[in-house]
Amino acid sequence: MDSSSPTSGTAPLLYFVDGMDCASCVQKVEQMVGRLPGTAAIKTSFSKQTLRLELDESQTARTVLEKNLRALGYTPSLQATVPPAQGRPASSDHDHSAEDHAGHVHAVLPAGTPWYAGRQGRLVIFSGVLLALAWGLGFVAPPYAVYGYIAATVLGVWPLARQAWASARLGDPFSINMLVSLAAVGAVLIGQAAEGAVVVFFFAVGELLEGVAAGRARAGIQALAALAPKTALLVEGTGTREVPADSLQVGQIVQVRPGGRVPADGTILSGTSSLDDSPVTGESMPVTKTVGDTVFAGSINTDGVLSIAVEKGASDNTIARIIELVEEAEGSKAATARFIDRFSRSYTPGVVLVSALVALVPPLLLGAQWYPWLYKGITLLLIGCPCALVLSVPAAITSGISAGTRRGLLIKGGAALETIGTVKTVAFDKTGTLTAGKPRVTDVLGVGASGSEVLRLAAAVEAGSSHPLARAIIKEAARINVSAPTAQDARAIAGKGVSATVEGRSLFISSPQHAGSTLNLTADLQGKLTALEEAGKTAVVVHSVDAVLGVLAIRDEPREDARAAIARLKEMGVNAVMLTGDNARTGRAIASGLGLDVQAELLPEDKLRLISELKKNGGVAMVGDGINDAPALAQADVGIAMGGGTDVALETADAALLRERVGDVADLVQLSRDTMTNIKWNIAFALGLKAIFLVTTLLGYTNLWMAILADTGATAIVTANALRLLGWKGGPVKQARASGGLPASGSV
């Protein structure tokens, strides 16, 4: 760790912060760092346990920052002096409305590290050895055993008391560590040193279990960073050269041999092979891909040799984006989590107040004996520890998001995960969402130009577009060896078409409705357009400013799982509707085959209006993949983007489907419901167990070690229940739940 003297100017720093492994820990660190003069661009990640910031050491020395982190119970290690993080400011990465549970520290062990090698593991061993020695002293020299227990208690509680004091200085006098410290010290003062030592030991064990569980819950996410290979075979001339994968630039060509991993997101230039995308998308079966198909960094090439054009750098590939989205999800709290935070803000001080009243009121006002009531008051401090309650929501949310990520379901935070399961309507875009997004040109009609000329000009206009219809036109032009000229000033007209300047004149590819509003379409042409649309084809008009050049008809088949997915949503009590900018005839032809309602010929603003209307009947999720879907994705209660969609749609959405299956929408709903059921059980168990022990304590049946064992046990059970979500498999619901309530049993 670099602890050099401060220098003038701002230095970008990256720290590994041992022990900063939960959202409340992250928030505590951010708030402390944010109060220091000269800090900026603060960004943290509890999955990687990192703190990134810019520090002006003329205002705050680096040693002061590190000292404050240690005072909170964390161990900072300077990893590097790095370029400032790009993107959003840190304030948008985490929800600062939540409570700061300062002083709650537990270390997450790196993968493969035994539990006893970590700081918390060493504390458990240390406390356990002291307790065992004190117990053994009771047999050898019974009068001196009490001193052994006092030593075990004081030495074991010392780090907790230090963290509690640091928390109090930061404005949180009612931290969990403070409750345990008061109880342990109080036990010694009333002559129950043995129970105080047991309290410290069990609390340390509980913190260790929580840290190990937190590490397991995020292991799948952390493993994503290791998926991409470290090296790549860069094609140069007639040979290849091995280079670091993170040095690849957009436009370079790499070769991937059988058994190798794809080093970067890109497009296949030559070769055909089956690729195992499961590490990235969760797709269980290898997918055969050939020239023109997209590949992901981290996918495994199983048989053929592929030449791939790099389209994204290492910092922007699919794996990097998944990791970034999941890190963002860490700071987005569900409404239930925010409620628990607000509740615990009053709950913990309330526990201290009740404990004080129980300990003091009977002896002072009723003449009762001091010892029994002091003992009960101290016991209530331990029973009131909110560990299990505070953990009940984030543990389940983290497990749910991790389980979804492994199945190709990216969810941007607890708020989105909670909301998805409550929606009453799912609105689908058509092209690329309900359909496969691989349309083909079926008809080319020349009107003011020959068919080949119409296709040549249309391919030029669409050359820069990634829309599925555009790709179909370009592919058809290539198939018949039509060479498209260069276009200029290409732009999309949302909901209407595209335009560009080709060979000196303005050309348009428009929907029949838009073309009819600007040009006079003949009755014969109108009839042909109607016939094409009734056949379930999408017709577009190629025209100049004042004349129709021709018509292209394109058909995109529904995805194989679309009909079954719509039926499954209906079984779950969720309505489905198609919102499309395509013509009404084509929309009806597709919708009738899938068994859902349809609203067609919609502009982006029309989709916004319809989503607002659908919201009157309950929550609405919107599923789309195009630029014109972005406003609707943002307007819906939950926006869901198909993973192969545009960057705009992916950034706007609350969730993304990497496998591009309609059935994954139903899986998202089911995962949300299963997660919320898990949370309800966790909260009920945490509060129910405390209520039981509250009564038994007041009746005199509960002692100190039973109280801390109950708290530790509740934490362990809540954590174990949350970790069950890591084994979530998805799949069809086993029982229809028309009310949208609890999921069918056995889905986790």
- Mean pLDDT, as a whole number? 78
Number of domains: 5
Helix content: 40-55%
Structural class, by secondary structure, is alpha+beta
Number of strands: 26
**Gap from first CA to last CA:** 44 Å
Low-confidence stretches: 1-8, 82-109, 733-748
Describe the largest sheet.
7 strands, mixed
Dominant shape: elongated
Question: Order of strands across the widest beta sheet?
Answer: 14-26-25-24-15-22-23
- Count helical runs: 24
Query: Which radius of gyration do the C-alpha atoms yield?
Result: 31 Å
Strand content: 15-25%
Question: Layout of helices and strands, plus pairs?
Answer:
Elements: E1 10-18, H1 23-35, E2 39-45, E3 50-56, H2 62-71, E4 75-81, H3 119-140, H4 145-169, H5 176-189, H6 193-224, E5 231-236, E6 239-244, E7 253-256, E8 266-270, E9 273-276, H7 278-281, E10 287-289, E11 294-295, E12 300-301, E13 306-310, H8 318-331, H9 335-366, H10 370-383, H11 387-406, E14 409-411, H12 414-420, E15 423-428, H13 430-434, E16 440-446, H14 451-461, H15 468-479, E17 487-493, E18 497-502, E19 505-510, H16 512-518, H17 523-534, E20 538-543, E21 548-555, H18 562-571, E22 575-579, H19 584-594, E23 597-599, H20 604-614, E24 619-624, H21 630-635, E25 638-642, H22 647-652, E26 655-657, H23 663-698, H24 704-723
Parallel strand pairs: 15-22, 15-24, 22-23, 24-25, 25-26
Antiparallel strand pairs: 1-3, 1-4, 2-3, 5-6, 5-7, 7-13, 8-11, 8-13, 9-10, 9-12, 14-26, 16-21, 17-18, 18-19, 19-20, 20-21
Helix pairs in contact: 3-4, 3-6, 4-5, 4-6, 5-6, 5-10, 6-11, 6-24, 8-11, 9-10, 9-11, 10-23, 10-24, 11-23, 11-24, 12-23, 14-15, 18-23, 23-24
